[in-house]
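In pairs, describe these two lines:
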Amino acid sequence: MRTCTLQFTPKMMFIREFRAAIKNYLPMKKYNKYLAIFSFLLSACHVSPPIELVSNGKSNYAIVIPSDPNKQEQRAADLFQAYIQQVSGCSLAVVHHLNEGSKGIFIREKGNISYDGYRIKTDKNKSIYIDGSKSKGCIYGVITILEKYAGCHLYTPDYKIIPQNKDIRLPYIDLADSSVNENRMINIPDKAFSHDQDLLDWHRIS
């Protein structure tokens, strides 16, 4: 049985040695197949550095909303600010224009998104964009980040999970969602639930 030994040198040397090794021990058809699989796995293993939204209880980010925000833009900004502070102790400023050296979380209502839908996207400068349709798209986009990346979960008036973490990191994000129903009303006999606006928004109840 033949064996081959690969020396783990820097990335380009490793790729060259790997290609040469498998070419010597595999038929051409299998060589091309395995090389394609290896190249795919190598690219998939590349992990971009995280976005440090909060580090050790401090942040270079500010929440940016239009100079004349509508009700949902203001509500989304306040919600984001409140829960990030509860988690990390860091209060992100809500501003209309970024100061030099600051990074932005841009919350904006857009007209080209489906009803109650949102788009969350980050860019190479690590800016964060939360675009929402009319009604509550921006709010639902904010809640998605709070759930997926800050670990905040609201279940009932008495059962809410708000973790304590002075570091909040986000991956690069590109996602979108929207609702198929414009009205989502249910009969809630519990007054504490029906009067808790955060809880209602978390469960997307109109």
